[in-house]
Amino acid sequence: MPRWRSHPTNLLFSKWLELLTNSMDDVKPNLDELIAVVVKAVASAYQTQELDNALVIRDELKRLPDHLTTEVLNGVILSLVNTDPDLCRWFILDIFLHGSDPEGRADVAERINLLMADLNTQQDV
């Protein structure tokens, strides 16, 4: 078994993705649980600085149908902006959107900045 998949969080993430991609018609995914698993897998890859692990996460997410990928990424962004903005920027901008259209990356970066500003405003109140 590849080292990445041997980590419990990554194994769970991998099983979720396999289930979703193999039986989309039969399964109504619990997006909150999937988002939590993705966040844990991303945090693990970031803490160990294992770029290969982060790339596997990205590639597995891209296997999902577009609408589900969007839902999961939106949830991951919201979760990470609240807990670790640097991790959010690293995974979303540097890993997931690596090689993407610069304008698209700029739009997502701006969205992350707005979410962070909104969070800071709420904390100041």
Secondary structure blueprint with pairings:
Layout: H1 3-6, H2 8-22, H3 31-48, H4 51-62, H5 66-83, H6 85-96, H7 102-124
Helix pairs in contact: 2-3, 3-4, 3-5, 5-6, 5-7, 6-7
How is this structure best summarized?
The chain contains 7 helices and no strands. The model has no long low-confidence stretch (mean pLDDT 82).
Structural class: mainly alpha
User: Cα distance, first to last residue?
Assistant: 49 Å
Biggest pleated-sheet summary: none
Number of helices: 7
Strand content: under 5%
Total strand segments: 0
Query: How many separate structural domains?
Result: 1
Radius of gyration, in Å, reads 15 Å
Shape: globular
Low-confidence sequence ranges: none
Mean pLDDT: 82
* Proportion of helical residues: over 70%
Order of helices and strands: HHHHHHH
Task: Report on this structure.
- The chain is an all-alpha fold.
- The longest helix has 23 residues.
- It starts with a helix and ends with a helix.
- Helix content is 82%, strand content 0%.
- 22% of the residues are buried.
- The protein has one domain.
- It is built from seven helices and no strands.
- The model has no long low-confidence stretch (mean pLDDT 82).
- The radius of gyration is 15 Å and the shape is globular.
List keywords for this structure.
mainly alpha; 7 helices; 125 residues; 0% strand
